[in-house]
Design a protein that fits this description.
heterodimer, A: about 100 residues, mainly alpha, 5 helices, about 75% helix, B: about 130 residues, Rossmann fold, 5-stranded parallel sheet
């Protein structure tokens, strides 16, 4: 079931913007967790966290990219994993703080 | 008749805790007990006496299902609906999670604007079951 989206009043919208900005500052840490994952289990965990979080902060494209990388791990497709991770890194760099 | 006010959330990801705080406290107006681990939830549940519990599934230490199993042993949790938060929602996983006594599943990422209404539906459904 999909509930109608409630309009946020100006005060809440401003608070949501702050929350979104805080999330974007966490992207550098998340990118490190992905890049420095010692094994596929840790990589899956880092991708899983990102997939579950990003969409709630207005970045469903990041969630989808993370899911794509997780699927590549599941299927053992190393080329698809490399492509997915590269796109993910580029998007995180573009969104994250300079 | 009482209303839903006190919600306990158990989530290890600090960003998700932040968006839960925004969604459920600021948008929904609920009183929140945000816990970073299953152990923290066990430490705080008696004092907080939640009317609904939201639990992440994959957490280091106690997982969501393990946490719920231990929470269910507390008298204060009698009849309290529990909802799992998960980034995976394959049918077999959903079925497995409901075995743990969850009223429902909310798939991450969730919409922070509609989440307060979504959890109220689960709370009302859970109360009907407990009645």
């Amino acid at each position: 079931m999909t509930l109608p989206r409630d309009p946020m009043d100006a005060g809440l919208a401003a608070q949501f913007d702050l929350v979104r900005k805080q999330f974007l500052t966490s992207l550098a840490r998340r990118a490190r967790e992905i890049d420095e994952a010692p094994d596929q289990r840790a990589l899956q965990a880092a991708l899983h966290q990102l997939a579950g979080a990003a969409g709630s902060f207005g970045h469903p494209e990041l969630s989808e990219m993370a899911r794509r990388a997780m699927r590549a791990i599941d299927t053992g497709d190393t080329h698809a994993l490399e492509v997915a991770l590269e796109r993910l890194r580029a998007t995180m760099r573009a969104l994250g703080p300079p | 008749m009482d209303d839903l006010r006190r919600v306990m959330c158990v989530e290890d990801d600090p960003d998700i805790r932040m968006i839960l705080d925004f969604s459920l406290q600021r948008v929904g107006g609920y009183e929140l007990c945000l816990c970073a681990s299953g152990q923290e939830a066990l430490d705080r549940v008696d004092a907080f006496a939640p009317q609904l519990v939201l639990l992440d599934v994959m957490m280091p230490g106690l997982t969501g299902p393990q946490t719920l199993e231990q929470l269910r042993q507390r008298p204060v949790m009698r009849g309290v609906p529990a909802v799992f938060l998960t980034a995976k929602a394959m049918p077999d996983e959903v079925e497995a999670l409901t075995v743990y006594g969850a009223t429902g599943i909310i798939v991450k990422p969730f919409d922070p604007v509609t989440l307060p209404k979504d959890i109220r539906i689960y709370w009302e459904h859970g109360r009907d079951i407990a009645a």
